[in-house]
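Bug #77: duplicate submission created two jobs. Keeping one. Sequence:
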Amino acid sequence: MKPLRVAVVGAGHLGRIHARLAAVAPEIELVAVADPVEAARVSVAQEAKTQAVADYRQLVGQIEAAIVASPTSTHHAIGMELLGAGVPLLIEKPLAPTAAEAEDLVSMARKKGVVLQVGHVERFNAALNAVAADVRDPKYIEATRTSGYTFRSTDIGVVLDVMIHDLDIVLSLAKSTVEDVQAIGVSVLGCHEDMATARLSFASGCVAQLSASRVSFQQQRTMTVFTSRGSASINFATHEATVVKPREDVLRRAFRVDQLSATERTYWKEHLFDELLVRTQYDSPAGNAIQEEQRDFVGAIREGRAPRVDGVAGSNAVAVAEMILERIEEHSWDGTPSGRRGPFAMPALPIIAGTTQPAAERPTRRRAG
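Kept job's structure:
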């Protein structure tokens, strides 16, 4: 079978990675790299040994699919045009900056009958896949994702930039409607939130607590999932995972700690994770998740099936992210109607003119749902 003719739209950090991998993928023929910035497109195209074009629209008719890795604010316009022309797309996360724009993209893909995949690359992480059978029907999920400031994706905040990864995974595991959202966030370096924490309550009874920061001195990408039969801890950075499964009598509540002798207590203290809460560790091969993502994209097109992360999943993640952002906007730091609100918690006094953003100037969002 001939390789799929694909273009990469966007020559930034992720565009370069996608182009480099697509250039060596046997199932892909990289036709071009498109970006309005000449220096960027030429550099990436030269590295990937393909042509550079300024306008992605001139490639319609020459390509069979495209990978959109442009800034989030451009996803809707580029996506609607290419999907409207019948071009299957892999759009980097988040699918769009608002739920309304994300829904537009899903509707257009459905109308044209073409594949729309979203770049939630952690779904291809080997550690998550290793424990897939142990995280069904979750009851409580806790996730932390922190990093330093990359000075990329400054058109969006940490919720759409970083937390969106965990939102997508949580939604894929919970498979339930979000009934309540609580959230708080703080802007540190720009006009968007750079730290955020959110608590989601699902109709199924599952609760998820998510924390994200892009101004942290610690790198962390972890998640712990508790089910009615055990727990799984996942380290997305190291591709390691640990599953803990309580012994059957513990699950039946038949193991009585209060009835143990001193000798038995000493024994179980030493053998807790060997015999009582049995621990299994997985050290999965790292692999290349973006490469796997591209293969899934090509496979979905060739086989006429849905990709692992389709447009609906990407749209749902954006809708919940929008709910979180609304709660962040609503938070009052001083408990008064005229006090500081939203992610702009500091400074308390206008020491420097223009430091805090007036409420009237903050972007408004359509209510998700």
